[in-house]
Fold this sequence. Notes:
Belongs to the YkuD family. The protein is α+β, with helices and mostly antiparallel strands.
Amino acid sequence: xxxxxxxxxxxxxxxxxxxGFSFFHxxxxxxxxxxxxxxxxxxxxxxxxSHYELKLYDxxxxxxxxxxxxxxxxxxxxxxxxxRRTPEGHFKIIAKKLHPEWGHFLLLxxxxxxxxxxxxxxxxxxxxxxxAKPGGGIGIHATRRNEDRFVDYYYNWTxxxxxxxxxxxxxxxxxxxxxxxxxILH
Length: 186
């Protein structure tokens, strides 16, 4: 029985390694820090990629901090469609929808005019391929069902979006109106 358990652990480790699935845990615990939520129509979000945090503010200041994960552990700005990077800059929530896989989804207005200018400059300088596209569909959303642990282990799994636990995504979805400003920092 012991050899079967050992074999199962080894096989699981090999499968995870082959799939590029690497968990890493930071020294901090993925928890939500909150003040009592105030009723406000003037919220704004600041996402800090280097600290894996989404901070919610209102006109009086800080309200809550939520743990988040991204597309890739390469914490640079999104360059083109398919690179799995999370864009940096200033955005707005332009739509709210329920996604069949990712639950509560807050769609951002990526690419903005600024993003398109950066994209075209990179393309003209040969930094990205001539046939590249800027991409789109970036948002803040939940993990897939039964995958909240990805947030606990800071596992970046999205295609460039910002993901948090299902309960936190629902809370943000219920709280934030379309038009909410979102800043994403390196």
